[in-house]
Design a protein that fits this description.
heterodimer; A: 108 residues; mainly beta; 6-stranded mixed beta sheet; 3-stranded antiparallel beta sheet; 0% helix; globular; B: 124 residues; 4-stranded antiparallel beta sheet; 11 strands
Amino acid sequence: SYVLTQPPSVSVAPGKTATITCGANNIGTKSVHWYQQKPGQTPVVVIFYDSDRPSGIPERFSGSNSGNTATLTITRVDAGDEADYYCQVWDNISDHVIFGGGTKLTVL
Amino acid sequence: QVQLVESGGGVVQPGRSLRLSCVTSGFTFSSYGIHWVRQAPGKGLEWVAVISYDGGNKYYADSVKGRFTISRDNSKNTLYLQMTSLRAEDTAVYYCAKDSHYHERKTFYDLDYWGQGTLITVSS
């Protein structure tokens, strides 16, 4: 089955750039979506179709996808960005939605 | 505004059954696929199932296939999840979530709106 691999945790100082990766075989051929989930809240899409940003999501959030790695980048990180982040794809071989294991972003 | 409201959660014994409902509003329910996603306490997101806009296609995670059944009633703007042979490992918050794509039967995309979730605890 198709597996999305994320680092369990990423730490970054305020004002710096956070990079969260999502690795899988030929993930660049799929559309990747990213969710932010703050404690006690429901997930929110922050990036869809690799790099599109829903209305209301700051421009500090961006995404890319190529080869075997998709990346979520958050610039000028602040304490409000502390959350779990999940990548997600639709696998048309298994006809399954696949979520990555999630990455906990800590702002130091 | 788009709303999805789950109900039907609670405590249930292993081996028993339960049916969840997800009542929706604020969008044309009959035009979108809808997913169930669960999250065990302190764990990550796990996709459970999806049903196409017309109910014609249904797909399940391997962990629930044969035990759970997703269905919808487009006249009531409501999604269901019938769960049987429940196990301790099914304990989780269950979310319903709308797929972003219109009139898709075979391929699904990002989940753009989520309900608040309903907690299922499977325990004797």
